[in-house]
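Shipment paperwork, digital attachment
Item: protein structure file
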Amino acid sequence: MPQLTVCPSCAERLEPEDKFCGNCGTNLAAAAVARKPWEPPSDTDGGLVAPRSGEPAAETATRGPHGPATGYGPPPPRQESDAAPGDYGLAPPERSAPAAAPDRAPRPDHSAPGVVPRAGATDPREVLLADGGSPARMCVACGTGSVDPDGYCEHCGHAQPRERDHMEQELPGVAAVTDRGLRHHRNEDAFALSAVALPDGGSAVVAVVCDGVSSAARPDEASAAAARAANASLRVSLTGGAAPREAMHEALLTAAESVNALADDHDPDPAANAPACTCVSAVTTGDLLTVGWIGDSRAYWIPDDRTGERPARLTEDDSWAARMVEAGLMSEAEAYADVRAHAITGWLGADAVELDPHTASFQPDRPGVVVVCTDGLWNYAESAAELAAVVPADARDHPLRCAQTLVGVALDGGGHDNITVAVLPFPTPQPG
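Attachment content:
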């Protein structure tokens, strides 16, 4: 039987012992037999793009979110989408060997609070997991085979959905959605939300979004640990009466310690490809908006009235592209078009060269929403104006629906990365 190196259906790389594709469940034995004898398998099956390499010009330790950069070897290329871009007025990314995108079920409007996996009909990642977090025992693809302990159907070999593939949560004054996207094997993003009662009788709303560094070890664990730690720290500090900016700085340091602990617990050398992630957080307290970040996850301000005040990006990336623009060596368009653009210069992890939490506070004089997101979204709506163009007009009244819509923008644009979006209405809705 000819040996396949990539899946003929989805271009997923295969191991010699694979009988089914771990990404789409294709029967590889049948696919190999169907291949013509004069068409040997090759690494170019499926239109994969050969990696390009380049060294950052700045003498700064960098790490690529989709692969290592300086100090870790040349970065692999960004995986472009097989899906057609959505009609959102945004320039689609450069693509190679386009193919039909998998059908996705309509996105439901969940109104009940709490984190729930997404329900759906056609895409197996969208099937609602059973109550209590236990996966359904019947295959979501064929409907007849049972699922083995490794999460694969014993009849058709289809990989079953995991709980973190798509999750949503809504609290009074904040909502968030995270999705695996269309190209990644797992969701390495994480978020945490909370509503806090302040000592003065007011309330605060917290949203933390973290993006695991794919080139690092266990990035999904790093993002989850950082999100939990930062959220818990903010709750304790704000409840105790700390100023929002002071609480934000302490939360980022606490998140860094939680990610460092992952390396201490598992790796003899904490600096050897240690778990790592980026982090961005927003807190609204009355008429004050505070953001904090490390890495290239972002926060945007989108006013309700977009004909008057302009939308704005509230964070500055810790990235190669941002350093080039800051040094005056490239224009923003040139820097972000470079293959090294997303190599990050700041992150949470034991191998971080320097831990420099950024914080900022703002006092918007009109209502709007704060959008906190990973680069899985802003890759498809990079500027504040582009993002504002796809934020629904009723976002402040329906933050969950807004977050679902923005995740849909990224999925329809290609979904090459994990996507996480949190939406905070401003000013914060007060109880009663």
